[in-house]
Amino acid sequence: MSTKMNYEEEYYPARHEDGLQALIQAQVNRAPWWLMSVAAHMLLGLGMWLTIASTYEPERTVRIISGVSEKEEEEIKEELERDVFSRDCEIPAETESLEDPMISDAPVDDINRTDDNEETDGCKGEDLASDKPFHGKFWSSTVGVGGGAGGPFGGRFGSNRRTRAAGGKRTEAVVQKALLWLQRHQNPDGMWSTDKFMSNCRGPVLCTGKGETPDYDMGNTGLATLAFLGCGNTHNHGFYKNTVLKALQAIKERQLPNGCFGAQTGDGHWIYNHLITTMAVAEAYGLSRGAPLLKPIAQKAVDYIVECQNPGLGWRYGSKPGDNDTSCTGWAVLALKSAKLSKLSVPREAFEGAANWIDKVTEEQYYKTGYSTRGDGGARLSTAKSWKPLEAMTAAALTARIFMGESARSPKVIGAATLLKNSPPKWNVSDGTIDMYYWYYGALGMYQMGGPYWTTWNAALKDALIPTQHTKGCLDGSWDPVCAWGSAGGRVYSTAINALTLEIYYRYSKVLNRK
Q1: What is the DSSP string of 123-144?
Q2: To 5 degrees, how large is the angle CA 274–CA 279–CA 282?
Q3: Structural domain tally of the chain?
Q4: What predicted TM-score, i.e. pTM, was given to this entire model?
Q5: How far is CA 503 from the centre of its chain?
Q6: 53 is a domain residue
Q7: Is 68 among the domain residues?
Q8: 280 and 369 in one domain?
Q9: pLDDT tens-digit readout, 150-203
């Protein structure tokens, strides 16, 4: 008994002295310091939890009612869309769709972006249609006459587009004004009219500059669509997504069973319509990262281009006409290049034939390229004989050679670029040297050449196009069709092709390893 009592007195002295309070105090005095700290923190945490739980209320939906009208709300929404796009964010596709879901239900994935300053390592592709021009580790964006990401069209989106456009700050606002003019003059059915676009004018004074014939409506629609695609708009992305969607649906509806876009007139000039429009559809397919419902439309159009080619050579008016010209062949190369980059099927032989034709009509001394024969003066409309022939075919040949993998050190490439450098753009109506078609191909080729070739050309190009764009009334954003091909294509043609020319900073990555 005595041993037990001593044990209890040593460890539980409170039983014999001050009751329960003394017992607790004795235990606290004997407890290690760390145990006391743990207990204190547990009590503090429990108290905080009980406080929060007692004051918690479910989240309430707050509705703010303002006096803003529906029209003002729509204007605010549009301004927010512009702001979101300018910050390099995706704009969700609208839930509203047009009648035909053939285009609009293609899925959209996030764009994976990479360093836009990454340089390619030259043109050493496995075949004539080298993939090096827009090579990247991931197929994640775009193609183009048309880019984020390391994909072939990666320069057309958000920060990547603005980074490239930094070299052409004067042109950025000019391009946007041109796109707004094209948007305003799109027909309700999605097409652009060559000779009746004025029916879409706003205001008391109508635009001037109609083209010759509606036979060119499909080609103009292709050019206008390319201008929107070139600035990073697709049928489900960008401020102009509805404009592109309507255009693609209109193009799809006009595709013939043989794959050709638009009516096939007897003179064979419909080939231009088909080549340009195929290029637009191929880029739309590539920019949307392979929208499955666009693929059969684009592939069928590409197959028809191949079918129309003269065996082992190039293209001209109609299907396998037997004769060739560099103008049609140049557009065919651009269309097939965009198709190849968009992972559509393009036979190697098509590019081999194009290269054969270009070589056949290129002089071996100065590397000037002819239109239908070596050494000819090019082509002009019967109604545009006052416009002087320039190096348009040499520019088309230069661009085609580069995009088909020709080396930057090739005498043919250097010779052609030198001819263009000595004949830069100049806006002078009186001397007949305005040729927007030439300037377009020249910008494509000279941008790839870089160095003094590009700086000389680009300075002249800006001086020619920026001051001459209209800035008032319904004409605001457009260019007068005062050039060798303006009488045929009209104001839609001149505005679309000049916008494409000024988009060169972000439409294509550098093919050649040139600064």
Answers
A1: S--SSSS-SGGG--SS--S---
A2: 120
A3: 2
A4: 0.72
A5: 9
A6: no
A7: no
A8: yes
A9: 355 545 655 445 545 545 677 889 999 999 999 999 999 999 999 999 999 988
